[in-house]
Design goal:
The chain is of the alpha/beta class and 459 residues long. The protein contains 14 helices and 16 strands. The chain has two domains: 174 residues, Aspartate Aminotransferase, domain 1 (Alpha-Beta Complex), CATH 3.90.1150; 272 residues, Type I PLP-dependent aspartate aminotransferase-like (Major domain) (Aspartate Aminotransferase, domain 2, 3-Layer(aba) Sandwich). The protein binds 4'-deoxy-4'-aminopyridoxal-5'-phosphate. The site of 4'-deoxy-4'-aminopyridoxal-5'-phosphate has 16 residues, from helix 5.
Length: 459
């Protein structure tokens, strides 16, 4: 239902937006002919914009974040209570919610042992990169310093993170990059790079080839998303992860799993890596940790990694000499505790699995109807539909057509996403990642909107 808004108040907000804001990921020229979109209110799966229009949010705040949905008073209450008691102290000291959330979190991550609090996914990944580099210095005379990342994966926006970023469309014009990051091939079978039977194993073997080319004694870590998000919703094929794990063990390479998107239930398990029996050395997480109610991200390590930084030596350089000022904000863990309780009490992992299956079923049905859908991929409530101009050649659908589908859905009151604008043929995947509270009706409303949009845009 549309809400009534106070146009007088909001026109001042729009004016201030136009005059002062620099929006993320936006070509500001586009605002010369239209108003910026301002999201004024949210409840459950739905948000209302400045015109009072209601939208069903199929992308959890645009970027896979608001896992438990909008308007959760109990999270706001817990944060308020914590803030008036103790809002901040640097994390060289601890905090009550910091310890409590770490304990709750690690209970969901057997084999993992230590939590390092920061503010963003990029920062969590940077901290892991720094640890890998320091381990290389402490144990291997600086040699095992290279960090492998995968084509199409994304690990954040800082210079080191884009140096570890496999989406050239995000990186171009920001060089020179940080040295010591090396790319390995992607594993998307739909756009196969090898003609073979066991594609998962073959794609993992390609990682080993890079390790051998670079020299195993120079490679310290491998950083991967369990399911690639913005790079095209890429679910690794069977056999991939088992082989990756073997390769890391064989060459003594630390495995860093980037759960910034997949973490906190998005794929139907607490963490994406848990589908595959992976034993990581580092896990980074951000978006769903507090569903956007507070800025919190975590780097989680094993005790083995932690122990490498503990010593009796007199050497003043022998510990992890790093800080994140706002890693000491208690609003983050206070919100994260309630967020996790909601996921458990409302059984949202099971809901994610069930609603994810429904979404995949609906998308497969759309694929029967619309030849423009070349492939459908997903895990839990993290789904994508790749649009192609021609199913036989798999030539990607034109970017402006993909954007027209997104705009058509928006006009229908359903916010969907599309993977990044790319010149490599991966910009053409529609993304669906609704909050984990989605109902069957919500899922059907999303796919019905896509059905209508595809019919209108592609005729
Ligand atoms: N890793 C992945 C997989 C991501 O998708 C993102 C953000 N989209 C990041 C890291 C970076 O997170 P942040 O924007 O919080 O720095």
């Amino acid at each position: 239902m549309n809400k009534s808004v106070q146009p007088n108040d909001l026109s001042a907000v729009i004016e201030a937006d136009r005059a002062h804001l620099w929006h993320h990921l936006l070509q500001h020229k586009t605002l010369e002919t239209k108003d910026p979109k301002i999201i004024v209110e949210g409840k459950g799966m739905r948000v209302w914009d400045q015109t009072g229009k209601e939208h069903l949010d199929a992308v959890s705040g645009g970027v896979w974040t608001v896992n438990v949905g909008y308007g959760r008073e109990r999270i706001a209450d817990a944060v308020r209570e914590q803030l008036v008691k103790m809002n901040y102290f640097a994390q060289s000291a601890g905090s009550i919610p910091g310890s409590q959330f770490a304990e709750m979190l690690l209970a969901k991550m057997p084999g993992m042992s230590r939590v390092y609090y920061v503010n963003s996914g990029s920062e969590a990944n940077e901290k892991a990169f720094k640890m890998v580099r320091q381990i290389a210095h402490k144990r291997y005379g600086g040699k095992k310093h290279k960090i492998l990342y995968r084509e199409r994966d994304y690990h954040g926006s800082t210079i080191a993170c884009i140096s570890a970023g496999g989406q050239p469309e995000r990186n171009l014009q920001y060089g020179p990059y940080t040295p010591g990051f090396v790319e390995v091939p992607h594993c998307l079978e739909y756009r196969a790079q090898w003609d073979c039977e066991n594609y998962g194993e073959r794609a993992a073997d390609a990682i080993e080839e890079v390790i051998l080319r670079e020299g195993p004694d120079t490679v310290g870590a491998l950083c991967l998303e369990p399911v690639t998000a913005g790079g095209g919703v890429i679910v690794p094929p069977a056999g991939y992860w088992e082989r990756v794990q073997e390769i890391c063990a064989k060459y003594d390479i630390l495995l860093h799993i980037d759960e910034v998107v997949c973490g906190m239930g998005r794929t139907g398990t607490w963490f994406g890596y848990q589908h595959y029996g992976i034993k990581p050395d580092f896990v980074t997480m951000a978006k769903g940790v507090a569903s956007g109610y507070a800025a919190i991200a975590c780097l989680v390590t094993t005790e083995k990694v932690f122990d490498l930084f503990k010593s009796d030596a007199e050497d003043p350089l022998d510990y992890f000499r790093d800080i994140s000022t706002f890693g000491g904000c208690t609003a983050g863990p206070a919100a994260a505790i309630e967020n996790m309780k909601i996921l458990e009490e409302e059984n949202l992992l099971a809901n994610t699995e069930a609603m994810g299956a429904r979404m995949m079923g609906n998308l497969h049905a759309l694929m029967e109807k619309h030849a423009v859908i070349g492939d459908v991929r997903g895990k839990g409530l993290f789904c994508g539909a790749e649009l192609v101009a021609d199913r036989a050649t798999k030539a990607p659908a034109a970017e402006k057509m993909v954007q027209a589908v997104v705009a058509d859905c928006m006009a229908q009151g359903v916010i969907i996403g599309a993977t990044n604008r790319s010149f490599t043929g991966f910009n053409n995947t529609l993304c669906f990642s609704p909050a984990l509270i989605a109902t069957p009706d919500d899922i059907d409303q999303i796919t019905d909107a896509v059905d209508g949009a595809l019919g209108r845009v592609f005729g």
